Amino acid sequence: MQFKRMGCLWWVLLFCFLWVVPLGAKETPKGVAKMEEVVVTATRVKEEPKTLPVSTSVITKEEIRATGAENVADLLRYVEGSYIQAYGGPGRATSLRIRGLDPRWVMVMVDGMEVNDPSAIGGAFDFSDLSVDDIERIEIIRGPESPLYGSDAMAGVVNIITKTGKGKPSASLSGYMGSMDTWQTRFSSGGKVGPLDYSLSASHLETNGIAKDDRYWRGSYAAKIGANLLENLRLEGTFRFINGDVQYDDFDFITYKTKNDPNQYKKTDRLITTFTATYIPFEFWESQLKLGMSDTRSKYSDRWDPESTDHSAWSDKLESESSYTGRIKKIDWQNTFHLMHRKKIKDTLVAGYEYREDEGKSTYYSVSASSWGFTKYKSRFPFRRMQLIGYYAQNELRLWDSLTLLAGFRIEDPDDFGGRTTYNLGASYHLKATDTVFKVRYATGFKAPTLYELYAPPNPSWWFLGGNRGLVPEEGESYELGISQSLFSKRISLDFTFFHEAVDKKILYYTDPVTWQSTYENISTVVDQGIEAGLTLRPFKGLLLKANYTYTDPDDREHHRRVERVPLNQWSASVFYNFKDKIKAYLGARFVGDRVDSYRKDSSGHLKPYYANAYTVVDGKISYKVSPHFEVFLRGENIFNRQYEEVKGYQAPDASWYIGSEVRF
Asked: What is the pLDDT of residue 109?
């Protein structure tokens, strides 16, 4: 059946190719080295990141296209200070650490709308189903951003900015097939008609995964429609819907490996919508109102199978089913005032108000068999809501086009916790004689307890007392020092950053050693420090080389040990080559060092660290433009077939190869 579908796909692409080739329209050459990086996430205002006292990385649309990455997580693996951990192959749970800090402290946004999952225990975002469809660029901010974005942004922010339609309407159709019986199709279209602009995309991915009964299916659909109604008024709406369906395995905690289960599934539906109105009443004042919603629904199902049951010392779990619903609703009113715009002095003030609601609910049902008979268990987490109200302001002062001073604060008023104030202070100086930039920054952050940590229902049979309404927000602070250097007319760029971060009142699942009763408590402190170094080379037109290195050493002060699943050392290197816009090639390599995966008791009862091995992975892609409207490509992942695990016990995919084509019309 699959080969029939692929056959239909390639016939469609061939037909489109034959139809558009005679058109012969010329296309403006584009190269990865030509893009001028501009960010908006770091200060909420369009800026060049080089002179900002904020650690920022940008993944451009040219780099996204050149790598051929299918998921956002594949791109983040090559960003300094970022570590992706996936529980196996395509569609499995995937999270991001920034500077070694917990994924729950990383805020992920799509077009400025938070997409973290309030129904998850820690509220972290799962990248497993997030494709690169219709993405203009990805901005990654390292370090606390709570002064601008509130809770969830204590470790950093990832903002995924989608494309805006430009120029004459156009469309493209692409597809590929390859390893693991994978096939994918994608359609996209965009352009501008009068005052209206639009960008649309739809894609479908299907793969059998890395082992038996590991099938994964994903559909992704996105749209952005905007209208410049007046010279000073723009309205814009975005829509993104993702649905994924994956089979996943059991985990054997004795052998510490996955084991096949043919009847275990996870289904996820994610809806993200925003509406933005931007009004410029005066030349010095821009006002923007954003309404947004992110809705995440997950369902887990594990049906009875006589060959694969979940064994324990007391019972066998025959079947289980659970569902989770998390929703974030937001109103953000941001005002940008250009207080002064002279040759030697530029002063910009950003001030705003944000109202956010986190909502969540879940249910769980299971049937177990034991020597006492069958046992049915049902748990319900009723609908809960938490409100967060924030007032923020940040001033950026630029003097003599060399010195940048940044100062901001946010007053947050979450339900039941009292007010929280966070700060951001930074400075950078651009020494133009040598094209050197010095940076320094201090910032604080916080993370409110999640709905589950507060209101989880008790389970007396497992001595679980339920959520703890006495929890207080986790608090963090960070300082960093950095220097960047450009040489030979910016053909060579170097940057180096030292960072130190501390998180206090970390929330952990705690079991009383006397009563064996468990709940969530503010009991831990994490201190993290390290360095980040980056190198960019542009030796000649069409060639771009990027490399980075990260050293991270987070320490759990409560238990006097290293934080789990954080590599001390990691590096990556990428080469992008564009020959006359005809042949494009990409080669990337990434190294992740040894890391403690978990702490477990050995046969003598002593707690012992268990390590995950280091690995080096190489990816690549080469494409050839047959005509201005037709392109073929070959992409490889884990080219040298490295056997590795990002999370111990969950095997990553072997060498994978994909061949495909794209037609534009």
From this structure: 97
